[in-house]
Amino acid sequence: QVQVVESGGGLVQAGGSLRLSCTASGLTFGDYNMGWFRQAPGKEREGISCITSTGGNTYYTDSVKGRFTIARDNAKNTVYLQMNSLKIEDTAMYFCAARTKSVGCALSTYGYSYWGQGTQVTVSS
């Protein structure tokens, strides 16, 4: 059974940093592109970043580009999202998801096979 588990969320002041982690099990981690998504109340789920299965390519949505960094450690079956210069607008539930590498790496929710339960990030003023 595939499990995807996020951790590292919490409450942080604007301008601060958080590092999210996502560990997957029950799959061959190196065969999957990994994405980070977020969803705030009243908004659609938004793709934040994606990293290809080997870590060779990364992608970011414009709103986080330059502030967030995605990375992965395939030996640990883990993908990370380093979030710096956090803004109030970054407040959301953050999700990690896996997408078969043959399908590609995308910031759309479409095509991601496995999802975590989410971890809450709240940025205060």
What is the CA–CA distance across the termini? Answer: 41 Å
Largest sheet: 7 strands, mixed
Radius of gyration: 13 Å
In terms of quaternary structure, what is this? Answer: single chain
Q: pLDDT under 50 segments (min length 5)?
A: none
Tally of DSSP β-strands = 11
Order of helices and strands: EEEEEEEEEEE
Overall geometric form: globular
Strand proportion: over 45%
Q: Main traits of this protein?
A:
mainly beta; 125 residues; seven-stranded mixed sheet; single chain
Verbal overview:
There is one protein chain. This protein has 125 residues and is an all-beta fold. Helix content is 0%, strand content 50%. The protein has no helices and 11 strands. The mean pLDDT is 96.
What is the fold's blueprint, element by element?
Elements: E1 3-7, E2 10-13, E3 18-25, E4 32-39, E5 46-51, E6 58-60, E7 68-73, E8 78-83, E9 92-100, E10 114-115, E11 119-124
Parallel strand pairs: 2-11
Antiparallel strand pairs: 1-3, 3-8, 4-5, 4-9, 5-6, 7-8, 9-10, 9-11
Give me a quick take on this structure.
0% of the residues lie in helices and 50% in strands. It is built from no helices and eleven strands.
